[in-house]
Amino acid sequence: MPDTNDHVRPAGFVRSAAIVLAIGGAWRLLMAMLMPVLSRDGVTFCWYARSLGEQGLEYLKDPSAQQHPLFPALLVGVQRAVLAVGAPDDPLTWQRCGQAIALVSGIAVILLSGSLARRLVQRLELPLDAGRAGICAMLLAALLPLNVWLSADVMSDQLHLALYLGAACLLVNLSDGRRTAAVGALAALAFLTRQEGVVLVLAGLAALVARRRSERAVKLAQRAVLLVGVFVICVSPYWALTGSFSSKKNIEDVFANVAVSDLMPRPAQNDALDLPTSFARLDTREVAWYALLPTAVYELFRAGRIVVPLLALPVLLQLRRRLLQPPLAGLMTCVAAHVALTLILLERFGYLQPRHMLVPTALLVPLAGMLLARVHFVLRTGGRPWLARLIVVAALLPLATYALRVPNAWDAYLRRAADRLIAEDSARRGKRMLCGASPRRVAFYADLEWQPWFEDPQAYDILCRKLRTGGAGYFAIEVAPDGARDEHFELAGNHDLITKLMADPAIAPHMKLVHSEPAPNGGALQIYSLSE
Can you give 92-107 as a three-state secondary structure string? Predict the structure, then answer.
């Protein structure tokens, strides 16, 4: 049973929660203001939203619409609202509107993390104060670096996570049809934000199965049909429009034995090379089957900066006999399913980053908050309040240290290059910029039309055709520092490619180097003007 002494009173909990939300919100706002340039995916979402606003739902049928539509649709709505009150229609307005959605979602993630921790303590009847556990979980969520960075950028992750945690709070106690229907609706919204949201349907079914000892099978079956039915009803218009399960990675490609190179669009030699706007070369790696799980666990610890998984592990061990029972069955299904998806991603595509572990990490945050609250309570009631505070600070300090890093600070040179073009070419609007995935951010800020380049130096003839046709504009390419040309996978061969282009009598007269922006790696972003 819960402790009866030293509880956080309701008024104290509300005050503490408000302070944590204020700190978390201010921290995220500061990072958003300091962030010099959007991430690659941030530009993708802005351009997706712009196209969605111009073309309407028909854009969802376009092969370039390779993200799920809910976040861009919200971005269009916010952008139009601020235009109505006098904001300029320029790239920075798109960025600020997207950041506002991500920031609000990030604050919701903090609040929902605390709510989930409180609900778990109460439903599990643990010897903990639910209020203290909730505050500790909120502190961890507020300072988790991934949460901070993704709340400052124009990314769908925090909106998806907020919807996900909202459903997770209901999964703790699927006691009636309204809660079940709400999980189905939140799962649909999460799926329309990111395709991983479909996991919530499986989690809901697992949570219902876990209640088979306390409820009649007929009632559980009815609620299972309700859960799936609400999800399908909400998502079916998207499926009907796109004609596929997901426009980002279709389910048949994920589970088929397809290499990442086979999924990337390789045009024929006579192709115009109009590639999807989200396409980029990936830094892939080959991982042996026996190293898949250790690699995924390693990325999970990186995502939680060691602190969150390390604090959650003792709680998982303590509750090991209850993990497949209410109220944990649904949440553990979510964690297991997401880890399984990352293993598939790593095995099929050779690609995995800490950001892919955001949802499992966020679901461990309430468990980590429980342990932190318990340690704080024991030390405080044991007459060592100073040590109790020190332990909490020690747990939060690594998260806060990493969360102080400004998002995308490494790519500030791209914004400087864009500012240079803006200052030097007042007639740039409507011109094209032929470049790869990273320099397209220059095209975004300079308000240029981006023409994708496959970033393959071997496709020389295709590049030459793109350079000679399409009219005036720019060609941007990043070159590695001398002596390190093979260490940067995206830049490999670019230096030699430029040398070859400038020696080509059919190309050189139409290209002129107008700016070279030094990059932090010692290389440079080179921008060439293209004549008619």
Answer: HHHHHHHHHHHHHHHH
Task: Dump pLDDT digits (tens) for 30-86.
Answer: 999 999 999 999 999 999 999 999 999 999 998 888 899 999 999 999 999 999 999
Give CA–CA dist 147/31, Å, rounded.
Answer: 11
Measured distance CA(488)–CA(479) in Å, rounded: 9
Residues 425 and 527 sit within 8 Å (Cβ to Cβ): no
What pLDDT, in 10s, does the model give residues 364-377?
999 999 999 999 99
d(CA 79, CA 53): 10
Q: Tens digit of pLDDT for each residue in 179-237?
A: 999 999 999 999 999 999 999 999 999 999 999 988 999 999 999 999 999 999 999 99
* Domain edges within the chain: 10-403, 410-530
Q: Give the single-character DSSP code of 251.
A: H
Read off the DSSP letter of residue 478: E
CA–CA separation, 319 vs 310, rounded Å?
A: 15
Element (H, E) at 364: helix 358-381
- Of the candidates 351, 342, 225, the one whose C-alpha atom is nearest the C-alpha of residue 293 is 342
Find all residues with CB under 8 Å of 405, minimum gap 6, and list them.
Answer: 145, 149
Please state, in angstroms and rounded to a whole number, the distance separating the CA atoms of residues 309 and 214: 32
- Sheet containing strand 449-452, edge to edge, reads 449-452, 432-435, 473-479, 524-530, 511-518
Beta strands 524-530 and 473-479, pairing class: antiparallel
Residues 6 or more apart whose CB falls under 8 angstroms from that of 336 comprise: none
